[in-house]
Specification:
Helix content: 55-70%
Radius of gyration: 31 Å
Order of helices and strands: HHHHHHHEEHEHEHHEHHEHHHHHHH
Bound molecules: arginine
Shape: elongated
Strand order of the largest sheet: 1-2
Number of helices: 20
Structural class: mainly alpha
Largest sheet: 2 strands, antiparallel
Length: 457
């Protein structure tokens, strides 16, 4: 039975019921709805709507219901209720009879659902924070192990300059740290309690909403009843935070897929996160990473979905807003599992040092070094750039690395070149030169890891 039958003389059509009911999605709010109802039963006792004894009876029955649905979650969907709020209220009435019918005094499903969803966001947000922190930690562990492992860095997917694998890891640590701070910020902003705002105009009972917010572990109550029941900024913000984080994960996945390819072969992914081909026996495919990259799309889709649903909605509650949960639940589930899988991939990843170093040695990744060498000998940079460009063309023609050309050939491009040039063209020298803050010199990478690890403790 619906909560609102009195005004209607005709039954809802089956099709409308199927269309309107949200239980198949919002059953996931059951704990939040019961906890919110317990707090509400205290609030209405505080203004004399029910006695303390009645409030205790309601709280006991609600706690019992919580245990029951934790043991047998299938009870919820089997009830056929319209939504999770109707399920909890009907179950309560079944337990305590007419007293259960008093619980909804002064409350609306509008402030109730807003409160439930914020409670859920707080819990899930904390869960994801833990996963983001874990992934950051895992990246630091790999960075520590591979702080001086040489590989080429790329621009335009062309070998550009040598970097270390540790330095690559630290780039993603930076991104994770921004994701963590964005999520913390979003969680801080959503930490206000809408309960006690009624349908839209506020509740008619002069209860202490500060105390009510505290009893639900919110930092404070919301301050405007219209806004309270129609605000879904937190759904948008969490989805946007997830979308940005997924963008980072998908870039990391893409880098690793390339590093793992037969063409690059800088890393080896472990068997436990790869799969085979049904036809080609030699294949070991990076499915885990491809799925992370692929699932990024659906998270973006949910973000655009909620933004579009909320666009131009008049104040206050509209049923359109019931569409907020499906996308958000999927966003948080997808984000969580991708973070866990990314961590698993990093745990088993091995760097092929020989191959990665070889790749860094090829492709003229030390050309900038030679230009800098000429600059140190007084040649203006633009001129040095041009000289090295011509020299690289000659080296390519002979299929030789710059450092493999005889000194006399190098000198034919610039007479400031002497035999100290070979020392400056080594990979070690290229890396060691990158000493300014943020650079890839192994020494700096080591220091950066130490500083970041200290932040953890
Ligand atoms: N199932 C609804 C939702 O998720 C609950 C709020 C219903 N409120 C209303 N006025 N019909 O949005």
């Amino acid at each position: 039975m619906a909560l609102w039958g009195g005004r209607f003389s005709q039954q809802s059509s089956q099709l409308f019921t199927l269309f309107n009911d949200s239980l198949p999605v919002d059953y996931r709010l059951v704990e939040q709805d019961i906890i919110g109802s317990i707090a509400w039963s205290q609030a209405i006792a505080s203004v004399g709507i029910i006695t303390l004894d009645e409030s205790n009876q309601l709280q006991q029955a609600l706690t019992q219901l919580l245990n029951e649905v934790q043991q047998q979650p299938e009870l919820i969907l089997a009830s056929g209720a319209e939504d999770i709020h109707s399920f909890v209220e009907q179950a309560l009435i079944t337990k305590v009879g007419d007293l259960g019918k008093k619980l909804h005094t002064g409350r609306s499903r509008n402030d109730q659902v807003a409160t439930d969803l914020k409670l859920w966001c707080k819990a899930q947000g904390q869960h994801v924070l833990g996963l983001l922190t874990g992934l950051r930690q895992q990246l630091l562990l790999v960075a520590e192990r591979e702080y001086d492992a040489v590989m080429p860095g790329f621009t335009h997917l062309q070998r550009a300059q040598p970097i270390t694998f540790g330095h690559w890891c630290l780039a993603y640590v930076e991104m994770m740290e921004r994701d963590i701070s964005r999520l913390q910020d979003a969680l801080k902003r959503l930490d206000t309690c809408p309960l006690g705002c009624g349908a839209l105009a506020g509740t008619a009972y002069a209860m202490d909403r500060v105390a009510l917010a505290q009893s639900l572990q919110f930092a404070a109550p919301t301050l405007n009843s219209l806004d309270s029941v129609s605000d879904r900024d937190h759904v948008v913000e969490l989805s946007a935070t997830a979308a940005i984080s997924m963008m980072h994960l998908s870039r990391m996945a893409e880098d690793l897929i390339f590093f793992n390819s037969g063409e690059a072969n800088f890393i080896e992914l472990s068997d436990d996160v790869t799969s085979g081909s049904s036809l080609m026996p030699q294949k070991k495919n990076p499915d885990a990473l491809e799925l992370i990259r692929g699932k990024t799309g659906r998270v973006y889709g949910s973000l655009v979905g909620i933004l579009t649903t909320m666009k131009a909605l008049p104040l206050a509650y509209n049923k359109d807003m019931q569409e907020d949960k499906e996308g958000l639940f999927d966003v948080m589930d997808t984000w969580s599992i991708c973070l866990e899988v990314a961590q698993l991939v990093l745990q088993g990843l091995q760097v092929n040092h020989e191959q990665a170093t070889l790749a860094a040695l090829q492709g003229y990744a030390n050309a900038t070094e030679l230009a800098d060498y000429l600059v140190a000998k007084g040649v203006p940079f633009r001129e040095a750039h041009h000289i090295v460009g011509e020299l690289v063309v000659a080296a390519i023609k002979q299929q030789l690395a710059i450092e493999a050309l005889p000194l006399s050939t190098l000198q034919s491009y610039s007479d400031v070149i002497t035999d100290d040039v070979f020392e400056c063209l080594t990979i070690e020298s290229c890396l060691a030169q990158r000493q300014a803050l943020g650079g890839t010199s192994p020494e700096l990478v080591k220091q950066a890891i130490a500083a970041k690890s200290k932040l953890n403790n």
